[in-house]
Design a protein that fits this description.
single chain; alpha/beta; Rossmann fold; six-stranded parallel sheet; 12 strands
Length: about 350
């Protein structure tokens, strides 16, 4: 039989897991972990995911070195200062304790190159200087000439300098009209091919262990590769089309299908104020256009996500908490990773227990 979550969980945590190493970079010993996962599954009667009677999907948003480890570019510390590391530790423990319940794991990967609209090289001022990281660029800033498109990067994007400037104006105006954050210039981060782009090793190891124990291939979703739009949400970019109707990015509708096809979808990751909140917001919009009742299938692991906090610069905690209250009001569930799944609100109804 498949995942009998009300009877058999939580499970113990495998002895290889070392919470003290979660905040470090290291090589996952795949073959050794594969052998241990097979033994662990046999020892604890963990069956292949294909046999699950109820489908529990875990979605991890951008659990990458660049966001979750202290020495990297965009570490999400939250108000505690250690949020990303603490979130990953609890997330690993959640995966291990619930190996027999989690049917599938989907992990998004924020994926960038240097010349993108939110990186310094994309913009210049009247002196040809680039904005510093964490600069906020409003529509007024662009319209008044405070910041403009860097014409030197136009050829590498396949556009003219005039097109670049027109698109920057359109983009910042669209953000303003939709009530989004102003364009934020971030430090270069999650660079494709770089170590910051990789999943946190401890989380990657937990996903791999689940893969072997449950015979269930994870799904890795690339997001953020479009040069002329931010892509906080895994479902779609901030702005879809340019001033002339040209496509700046495209939507990923697989998440609505995942909710539709699963009995429960559990979401965690970084950052609570940005990529997680935007993904859930977009997912809620998709759900409302399809079937409002699907919102009750979504569970948000509150203790496995943190907001962006840069002391003295920005603190998005209040915005993140407000977003989560909206999600709860819409029917989604706010839960803790340490609470047994069987005790989560509405789970028995969803799973037909």
């Amino acid at each position: 039989m498949g995942n009998q979550i009300l009877a058999n969980l939580p499970e113990p945590i495998p002895p290889h897991f070392d919470p003290e190493r979660v905040g470090q970079v290291w090589k996952v010993p795949y073959q050794l972990r594969a052998e241990e996962a097979l033994d662990w599954a046999a020892q604890h009667n963990i069956r292949p995911a294909v046999e699950d009677q109820s489908k529990i999907a875990l979605v991890l948003i951008d659990v990458q070195n660049t966001f979750c480890l202290l020495e990297f570019e965009l570490f999400v510390g939250g108000r505690s200062g250690m949020g990303g590391v603490q979130d990953c530790r609890r997330l690993c423990e959640f995966i291990y304790r619930n190996l027999g319940a989690i049917t599938s794991i989907t992990a998004t990967l924020d994926t960038h190159q240097a010349v993108q609209i939110f990186h310094p090289v994309y913009l210049v001022d009247e002196n040809g200087e680039h904005p510093a990281p964490l600069t906020l660029v409003s529509y007024a800033d662009v319209a008044q000439g405070r910041w403009r498109f860097n014409p030197a990067v136009a050829p590498s994007l396949g556009i003219t300098p005039e097109q670049g400037q027109e698109r920057l104006l359109h983009y910042t105006r669209s953000l303003q009209e939709r009530g989004k954050y102003d364009l934020t210039i971030w430090p270069y981060h999650a660079m494709l091919g770089g170590i910051g782009h990789a999943l946190v090793p401890a989380v990657e190891e937990a996903i791999f262990f689940h893969t072997i124990a449950r015979n269930a291939q994870p799904s890795l979703v690339i997001k953020g590769r479009w040069a002329e739009t931010e892509s906080y949400s895994a479902i779609g970019p901030e702005v879809l089309v340019g001033p002339d109707g040209e496509l700046l990015g495209e939507k990923n509708e697989s998440f609505l299908r995942l909710v539709n096809d699963s009995d429960a979808v559990v979401i965690a990751g970084e950052a609570k104020s940005h990529c997680v909140a935007w993904t859930v917001e977009d997912l809620l919009g998709e759900i409302r256009g399809y079937d409002d009742r699907l919102a009750s299938k979504v569970y948000l692991l509150e203790d496995c996500t943190s907001p962006v906090v840069v002391p003295g610069v920005m603190d998005t905690t209040d915005q993140a908490e407000a977003a989560y209250r909206r999600f709860a009001a819409a029917g989604m569930h706010l839960v803790q990773s340490t609470t047994p799944i069987s005790a989560w609100p509405g789970i028995s109804t969803l799973l037909g227990e």
